[in-house]
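Query protein
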Amino acid sequence: MPRGDKSSYTDKQKRKAEHIEAGYEHRGVAKGEAERRAWATVNAETGGGKKSGAGRGKAENHGPSRKGGRLGGAAAANRTAAERSASARKGAATRKRNAEKRG
């Protein structure tokens, strides 16, 4: 079996990887990188492809899927109130300028 062969994965694992990949692509991640991340997440959650034998079933660990959402906000938390305020003013000015161009 060549590296990258997905035949040993269950249909559910394949569907899950497709769904995760679509989410990454929606957020602007490149196709190849999105696929790599999706399969890494599936492997982390389910322990890889299906394995034969009685008693080999393991509970899924959903931590890797939840991890991403907790990572955000660290940059803003490390900035001072003055820096955040200046950034907000700059963003508001940009939105106002863009709105005037459009309308």
